[in-house]
Amino acid sequence: QKFSKGRNLNNERTQLGKLLGILKKEDLLPTIIFAFSKKRCNILAEYIRSRDMTTAEEKGEIHMFCSRSFSRLAGTDRNLPQINRVQDLLKKGIGVHHSGLLPIVREVVEMLFCKGLVKILFSTETFAMGVNAPARSVVFHSLRKHDGQSFRTLLSGEYTQMAGRAGRRGLDKFGTVIVACWEDIPGELELKKLLTGSATRLQSKFRLTYNMILNLLRVDEMKIEDMIRRSFGEFHAQAALPSAKALLKRANKACTSLDLVEWPIDKGSFEEEEVNEYATCVNEAGEIGRYLMGKVQE
User: Where do the Helicase C-terminal domain residues begin and end (predicted)?
Assistant: First the structure.
């Protein structure tokens, strides 16, 4: 199916309508449409507000579920514009999920989607992480996102994380992923890299700070060594230990094969006494650092 280029409001509304028609015809609902901005998710949901994707029975179930869920809020909070707007969309089987929504609203959307009552969900990456809610199909509104500095193409790991939502275990033999080329069509090499590239390697951001050490000293049950041992960075360090040992063994072997040469090799500007004095200072500085670290940990 070909769609026209451009992103004026009429074109985008028309293109979205055609896409939803195809999804319904091919029995690919429920679907998640990933758009990489909160504003875009809200706009796309408003485009199809007039559509009704649920039966009368489903509307009643959605109404009861929302009433029970939002009853935990204070009286004035139950009538917030955001909650009223989301409830109206949910009754029609349309959901929105992004970080701009209240936590309780996101939770309600997630649970209704898991129940199969939300047929079309417009979401940012927030729904791809940590939510076990697969769909029959996934649609990418775009393959480009803003990472806080500039617009870039999705990384292979990001694409895989979101595309992996397509296909419900035990219900679908396979999942369907659609890339909506409403703007420029991605190049062949770009798509190949996106689809077959390796996953993004996770890196630990754990850093032991002095404040953290002082706070741990106040807790008898937790030791600093225990926290480090449980960190994700330590897991990687232990995994890399065998290769590090092998590298050290090769380095030691290479050192033993070197020929010793008497000082000085040539008439340089440094005398042997100066080099020895520098080495002594370095060793003393290391000992002082270890002494201070030991005092902090006592």
Answer: 15-217
